[in-house]
Amino acid sequence: MASFVLRRPFAITSALKQLPKTTSPTARTFHGTPVKQQLFTQRSSTPMTTIFSKSCPTFQNAFRRYQSSYQGIPNPTAGGTLGQRLLYGGALVGGTILVTNLIFNRETREDGGMPPYERSYLNETFLHTGLGVGVIGVAASALHRSGWSLRLMSANPWVVIGGSLALSLVTMFGTFNTDPDNYIQKYALWTGFNVVQAGVLAPLLFLQPALLARAGLCTVAMMGSIAFVGATAKQEKYLYLGGPLLAGVALVAVSGFAPLVLPATAARTLMWSERIWLYGGLAVFGGFTLYDTQKVLQHARLAHQGRVRKDVVNESISLELDFLNIFVRMVQILGMQQRRK
Description:
The chain is mainly α and 341 residues long. 72% of the residues lie in helices and 0% in strands. The protein has helices at 2-17, 48-68, 82-104, 116-145, 148-153, 157-176, 183-201, 209-232, 242-261, 267-304, 312-340.
């Protein structure tokens, strides 16, 4: 369970680090200024309506400048037809699966392939993972249109992190501890968990939709290829990764919180902490995808033997966390690449 606790803060801090820079001290990123002058302003006795009325034009101007900075950047699929774009996306996903399989999956299963009960359990788990990600996307869009993103950005960062982490843990462990036969309560808690993630990630919708779409496609390609390797590899081949991945995610967690506690003068330390959070986190959560896929297959075998209860909702939560953490890093990497051009 400790891995779930450590996996939660990354989506929180990373989602808010993607927002554009501006000359106003209320819209700077974590690396631009100390905590007291960051994007999140401290709470005061000023009514919230006054804060929003003053800050709204500033954020609107900042996002207009940020959006205009992406205009004129060539997109290899922007001028193509729908068929060409689908072909480009299919080639990206298929090529990634092929290359990853050739590199990491030289020793495949020797038990005649995946049994039907394992395949069914894995398919249901990924179906719920896709549904959960879809709920997060729809809920995030609805919250963003209602003005939630601005309210979240004007809050104290520690309140945002602590509150969202507490709600995530309550809904997540509530889902884990609910009997699978209690459908209403279990799916209600699972939906609540997804809505909490949507509330945290809603500020990402200030970014260009094309950038988010590309990040989503890259995330699907990466997770799909790694999950394919985990599903076709030898039984329990990668389950030993649990301990090293837990240590790695702890290191990434510490680096993710560094911008909130270190002064802006520690530029070199902040630079390395961001690299560890970004690229180290990408490797760690790619490893978690491999580990979680094989863990799902192990639970499928145990459920088939009657030793554990079949519960694909619980299995999907870990894969959703992997998806979210990889996605926000893909957004940042693609945004950095476009700004360099």
